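Message: A physicist's question: would you kindly supply an amino acid chain plus fold tokens?
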Amino acid sequence: MDYFRAFWVGGLICALVQILMEKTKLMPGRIMVLLVCTGAVLGALGLYEPFLEYAGAGAGIPLLGFGNVLIKGVKEAVDEQGFLGLFSGGFRAGAVGTSAALIFGYLASLIFNPKMKK
């Protein structure tokens, strides 16, 4: 794997997000949703895996990758359960990552005593 390519692609994605944050009125939460949806669309079209193979870790940033995981889970659940898999597939596929984020976020809040900004 060409490490330069991974850094270049990851840096490009981060630069595009930074431009969105500075030049538009989009809030960070909406940009995060946009990244997850982009990963899901790329996964649904079959473009995420070739992109990930080309860029390596640079394309595996958490939000694009999470969208791809969700759509993969939905596809598998629809194949197994039919229409009802549409509602459960993403939850099953993303449950471990979401649970880990919630648990570790909670533990970090206990250790570091976060405060709201004024």
